[in-house]
Amino acid sequence: MSNSNTTEFSNPSTFILLGIPGLQGVHVWISIPFCTMYVITILGNFTILYIVKREPSLHEPMYYFLCMLAITDLVLSTSTLPTMLSIFWFNSREINFSACLTQMYFVHCFSAIESGIYVAMALDRYVAICHPLRHSTILTNCVVAKIALAVVLRGAVLALPYPILARQWPYCRTNIVPHTHCEHMHVVKLACVDISISSYYGLFALISRIGLDVLFITVSYTQILRAIFRLPSKDARLKTFGTCSSHLCAILTFYIPGLFSSLTTRFAHNLPLYFHVFIGNLYLLLPPMLNPIIYGVRMQQIRARLLRLFPHKGTEVVSFGSGSQSKSCVKLSGDMVLVPA
Fold first, then answer.
1. Which of 92, 149, 260, 336 falls between 20 and 30 A from 122, CA-CA?
2. Is residue 181 classed as helix, strand or coil in its secondary structure?
3. What is the pLDDT along the chain (341 residues), one digit of tens a residue?
4. Which helix (H) or strand (E) holds 281?
């Protein structure tokens, strides 16, 4: 039997994904929460897309960006989790070299797109709160489409050097990747040459994607908070801030694990390898699962439509009016609760 650790090659036809190093014996048990997260991700994000598509009153910039986020989350989780589950369930560890680079590209491309969507959502909240009377004239459908196109193109361009650089390195040490998917640094570290260019570009892309985006979001929310604190009453301040709470929660669940994963992969070499792999997987799986839950719970418009889709015993949803004046009355055991559409 050939030893893949000693075979010399400059362009391997396949890589071997190790899974979670040191925990191969419990892969089946680990797969249970990961598979559950994936099922919730699929159901939650498709529900968001279905609700927004069916409700004309939700055809607004915020919900267009929310649909973009749902599609991005579906692609991001699907680009890695099937590979992971095939390792856990069927011990299928081989991945074609080109497929590995394609997976690497998709992960970085859609991570950058998701970050850009959060910036677009911050812009929408800024205009809605700081310039409410001009919101519909500033963020027209044409402007929203241009923003969406810019977000997608930026993600596609930023991610392109990752596989291009990885393809040119000679891999003469081993083709075993100690990860559940083709994570960039874990792949290029297998090269037998200096990979400083790949490492430096990864840091540059990280700063461009997370650093600049977080800076823009921070500036936007600084202006938003200033506008909120100028409101005359406490109730008005709380109500206005409540419209931003779901967006802020989604931002935290995306950027904190992502930044932690990137920094620990490059600098925290003393941590166990399985810890790096776990953090890398949570960064890709946790936000796509939590986003539809966060927006479904925090946004009254989405919550009201969910009650309409899944009425339970003792609950009756009555709608009246149309367009922006539409209201939903949720009847719970004789009580009527008015929920704005």
1. 260
2. coil
3. 444 444 445 567 889 999 888 888 888 998 999 999 999 999 999 989 998 888 888 888 989 999 999 999 999 999 999 999 999 999 888 999 999 999 999 999 999 999 999 999 999 999 988 888 898 899 999 999 999 999 999 999 999 999 999 999 988 878 899 889 998 988 998 998 889 999 899 888 888 888 899 999 999 999 988 888 888 888 878 887 777 788 888 888 888 887 777 777 667 667 788 888 888 888 888 899 999 888 877 677 777 777 776 655 554 444 444 444 444 444 443 444 444 44
4. helix 273-298
CA neighbor of 70 nearest in space, from 316, 302, 240: 302
Q: Extract the tokens encoding 56.
A: 């004309």
Structure-token pair, residue 117: 């969507």
Show the DSSP H helices in the chain as ranges.
Answer: 27-54, 61-78, 81-90, 97-130, 135-138, 141-159, 161-168, 184-188, 196-206, 212-229, 234-267, 273-298, 300-309
Q: Cα–Cα distance between 257 and 252 in angstroms, integer?
A: 8
Q: How far is CA 25 from CA 20, 22, 88, 277, in A?
A: 10, 8, 10, 16
Amino acid at the residue 28: V
Instruction: Choose among 230, 220, 22: nearest CA to 120.
Output: 220
